[in-house]
Structures are given as structure tokens and as C-alpha cells.
Amino acid sequence: MKRQLILEDGTIFIGEAFGSDSEKTGEVVFNTGMTGYQEILSDPSYCGQIVTLTYPLVGNYGINRDDFESINPAISGFVVKEAADFPSNWRSGMSLDEFFKGKNIPGISGIDTRKLTRIIRHYGTLKGAICSIDKNAAEVLQQLKATVLPTDQVKRVSAKTAYPSPGRGKRVVLVDFGMKHGILRELNDRDCDVIVVPYNVTAREILSLNPDGIMLSNGPGNPKDVGEAIEMIRDIQGKVPMFGICLGHQLFALANGADTEKMKFGHRGSNHPVKDLKSGKIALTSQNHGYTVQAASVGRTNLEVTHIALNDGTVEGLRHKQFPAFTVQYHPEASPGPVDANYLFDEFLTMIETAKTEGEVTCQNVQI
């Protein structure tokens, strides 16, 4: 069955339909990863987006029970060059087509994804619609141009209520802006006692949980649309050590007076080189973001840039000059992607321990 992908600039791609018969609109983006399609399609940071994979063959090892980054994918559609009909892997439980049918997500294959990627790189991310070949393209294009993309993505993918993921180590409150399960997995591997809380949690509610540290997760959309979180970060920083990833990094920057801006087509892939400015070391990182912290705006804050992207010089890491808090734009949990930056979770726990020790010394001095 034929299906079409229509872009707001008038470009039309005609390909083969797979997955759900539903018709969806969204921001069309591309990911350059060569593997990890299951983690990509289940990453909540893609909420409302139509995701294009540049690697030509997708679905060859099927869908398994273990590699999800969320239970219910939030993407609007999936675009590939070729979707494997008969996956071959001992862990495979179903094909890409079967999975998308069950999750009501449309896919389109057999199009020139190289051409599509070049269009996005030239014009920037564009609105797009996946629809039946029978739909009048001119009418769809008119509707598409009038479509206003949603701004409530974080609300849609965040946890609705707090829940625990118990451990016997440090108590970490994980603020869920669209959390990848990989973050929770890394904290659990270190025996952290994790409490996951919704995006609109208040500083008072967090402090009532007596945390040793706070993790600000990744998530979708424009950080400026999440004003509640910016206020929470301002109220709580300096009281508890903090580590932010991706959207959490951007929110932390805004809370401290820096600014963010939308990128032309973003960073989405698993081989982005990042330089640690202190050590000079280069790490290959997994990334998925369409917004960035403006480098020039950091100078008027109490923050310092710790990491930069080698491809375009954008800000990839921040640290507070006074408080125990640091953030990175990339994904140290790396699903999919390399594990070069995995050590940051250990640095977070070390920072917690250091802050706790220094706090006890301070209290003892006050009592004396």
C-alpha cells in the first residue's frame, strides 16, 4: 500500500506504508545512528516528531522486550529507506511493522532518506504529514502550513505521579521531563534509592523527600515552555547536589540566567564528538536535541562551560561556580550510543558524597 510524506515546503515523498494506517503530523527530524532504532523510536524526547533514520536498513533485528527507553513511544511517525519484513535475531519478539500497528504509529519506507536529510539540513526542521496516497496533496499542504505544533510535550510524556525505584544507596530524586529508562538504569546499577517525580514538582516537595541528590532528566520540546521547572531549579540549587541531562541541562541554564535557542536541525545520533575543556579529552556521545544553550549568554551567569561540541562549537556541558551542580547536553546513559561518558554518573555520586561531608563539617563548626 502506498503512502505519502508531505513537507511544509511542498516536497512530496511517495513510499510504502507500514505500521498503523493512522495519519499524523509533526516536526520532521533525522537521526544518524547506525543501530539502536528501538531505543530511538521509544525515546520520549522525540514526542510529536516524525523521525527519519539515515541508516538504510531498519528493523533487521526486530523488536525485543529489553531495549525500550519508554513503555509507550511518543513519536508521530517513522521514516526509513527499507524496513525489514522478516527480522532475524534470537531476542526478536516482533517486526517493526507489527510493533507500530500495535502502538498506532504510521511508518513510510522506500523513499530517498538521503534526499530528505539534505532538505532538512538545508532548510532546517520542517513540519510534515504522513498520510494516505489518496489524500489531496494540496489540501494536506494547506492544512500543514496552518498547523501549530504543540508546546505541551513534557506534560504528555512525564510521569503523572511520583513512584520509587528502591535501592540502598544514595537517595536521588529524578525529575521526569521525558526520562529515558537508561538514566534510571544507570542510577539503579549504582544502588541508588531513586524516586521519580513529575515535571511540575515543586522545590518544597522535593526537599520533603530528603534527597542526597537531584537528577534533571532529558525530555522533548522547547525548554522555555517548562516554566515550572525553571522556578523549581532556582529554588533548590545550592541546597542539594544536582546533575542535569539534555533538557535538564537547558532548564538549568535558563534557571541561572543563560539563554537557549532553537538549532537549525539539531544533534541526533550516536557519534557526536565532545571535548572536555578541563582534561582536553574527546568523548563520542549519543545526542538528541533541537535546542542549545547560547554560549555568549553563559558569561553573565555564575556558570562555566565545561564541554563543547567539536562539530559546531555549541555548549555541551555546564558547571555552577558556587553550588554542587553540573549538566551535560548529551546522553551519558548512551542508549543507543557509546559509553564514553558513563563516568559522569560516578562523578555525580562523588559530588553528593563531597557535598555531604563538607556540609557535616560546616554544621559541626557552627555548633562549636
UniProtKB/TrEMBL annotation:
Family per record: Belongs to the CarA family.
Pathway linked to the protein: Pyrimidine metabolism; UMP biosynthesis via de novo pathway; (S)-dihydroorotate from bicarbonate: step 1/3; Amino-acid biosynthesis; L-arginine biosynthesis; carbamoyl phosphate from bicarbonate: step 1/1
Residues at the active site: 246 (nucleophile), 331, 333
Record's protein name: Carbamoyl phosphate synthase small chain
Family matches, as PANTHER family: CARBAMOYL-PHOSPHATE SYNTHASE SMALL CHAIN (PTHR43418:SF7), MULTIFUNCTIONAL TRYPTOPHAN BIOSYNTHESIS PROTEIN-RELATED (PTHR43418)
Residue sites binding L-glutamine per the record: 45, 219, 221, 247, 250, 288, 290-291
Coiled-coil stretches: none
Residue span(s) of domain Carbamoyl-phosphate synthase small subunit N-terminal: 1-131
Natural source organism: Peribacillus cavernae
HAMAP family linked: CPSase_S_chain
Role, per record: Small subunit of the glutamine-dependent carbamoyl phosphate synthetase (CPSase). CPSase catalyzes the formation of carbamoyl phosphate from the ammonia moiety of glutamine, carbonate, and phosphate donated by ATP, constituting the first step of 2 biosynthetic pathways, one leading to arginine and/or urea and the other to pyrimidine nucleotides. The small subunit (glutamine amidotransferase) binds and cleaves glutamine to supply the large subunit with the substrate ammonia.
GO biological process: one example: glutamine metabolic process
Molecular function as annotated in GO: ATP binding; carbamoyl-phosphate synthase (glutamine-hydrolyzing) activity; glutaminase activity
Subunit description: Composed of two chains; the small (or glutamine) chain promotes the hydrolysis of glutamine to ammonia, which is used by the large (or ammonia) chain to synthesize carbamoyl phosphate. Tetramer of heterodimers (alpha,beta)4.
Record field: catalytic activity: hydrogencarbonate + L-glutamine + 2 ATP + H2O = carbamoyl phosphate + L-glutamate + 2 ADP + phosphate + 2 H(+); L-glutamine + H2O = L-glutamate + NH4(+)
Organism lineage: Bacteria, Bacillati, Bacillota, Bacilli, Bacillales
Pfam families according to UniProt: CPSase_sm_chain, GATase
